[in-house]
Amino acid sequence: MRASDIARAIGLGASTTSRLLGTLEELGYVRKEPDGLSYHIGMAIVALSSLALNQNPVHRESRVAAQDLAQRTGLSVNVAVRDGAGLVYLCHFEGPLAPKAHTMVGMSQPMHGSALGKCLMLDMTEDQRIALLGPTLPSYTANTIASHQQLTSDLRESARLGRCTEIEELALGRLCVAAPIRDSSGTIVAAISVSGRLSVMRSHDVDALSEEVIEVADRVSIGLGLITAIPALKR
Predict the structure, then answer these.
(1) What is the pLDDT of residues 79-97, one digit of tens each?
(2) Which helix (H) or strand (E) segment is 108 a member of?
(3) Cα-flanking dihedrals φ and ψ of residue 88, to 5°?
(4) Residues 6 or more apart from 133 whose CB is under 8 A from it?
(5) Cα–Cα distance measured from residue 180 to residue 124, given in angstroms and rounded to the nearest whole number
(6) Whole-number Cα distances in Å, 185 to 84, 87, 191, 198, 205
(7) Which residues make Cβ contacts (< 8 Å) with residue 22, sequence separation at least 6?
(8) Between the CA atoms of 40, 43, 45 and 48, what dihedral angle is there, to the nearest 10 degrees?
(9) How far apart are alpha carbons 194 and 173 in whole angstroms?
(10) What are phi and psi of 107, to 5 degrees?
């Protein structure tokens, strides 16, 4: 972005923005392009992000397991945690059947529109979900769950099965299966998913994929210290 565009985006004056960018450039958090007008994210951001990821226990415990799952299935595997009313990807690995030209680590998604997000809300009551997400749920496709009553029903069935699914709820042509990851107290702290194009996913045994995702989630949970019985899920 150009400095003038950044100034407009953050609502500060051009001179103040220029001084801030100069400081960030010295620290390596942004870099100026050869044209002298545009800025990109600097490599110091990469180092800072790596430090945050490497210190995260969920990332440390799930990274190898997620990578192995992507290699075995050939599909896309993601691990995410809740961040406020949304989720953030901690791990992202691609198998040959689900290539992407970009990484999803650090990207955010809405909770109710994704299988990962649904997993992160499995232990919440409906009142807690309303307080978190607000009374209305935005739609992203014709298949998006758009009411809390419908979401509660979906999560009740997902809790019974031990996994959550998403079929073209966030983006058309995609199917995702996810399972919750718990810490030593039994609290859901993350979720892991397998996803891909609808046609590719349906060429697999989705039930078998679901079982595999649940098994990997359980292994990660054990790595995080889960040794007691999982508490009864709230409705």
Answers:
(1) 999 998 999 999 889 888 8
(2) strand 108-110
(3) -130, 135
(4) 85, 111, 112, 148
(5) 13
(6) 21, 21, 16, 36, 33
(7) none
(8) 180
(9) 14
(10) -75, 155
Helix (H, G, I), strand (E, B) or coil at 2: strand
Which residue bears the tokens 């961040």?
Answer: 83
Question: d(Cα 95, Cα 217) in Å, to the nearest integer?
Answer: 18
End-to-end CA gap in the chain: 46
Contact partners, residue 157, CB within 8 Å, separation at least 6? none
Residue with tokens 């998403």: 166
Half-sphere exposure of 6 (CA within 13 A, CB side): 19
**128-145 tens-digit pLDDT:** 999 999 999 999 999 999
If you count them, how many residues does the chain have? 235
Residue in this structure with the two tokens 């509660």, named with its chain if needed:
152
Pairwise CA distance, residues 126 & 233, whole Å? 12
Tokens of 216: 């990997």
Closest CA to 61 of 181, 214, 164: 181
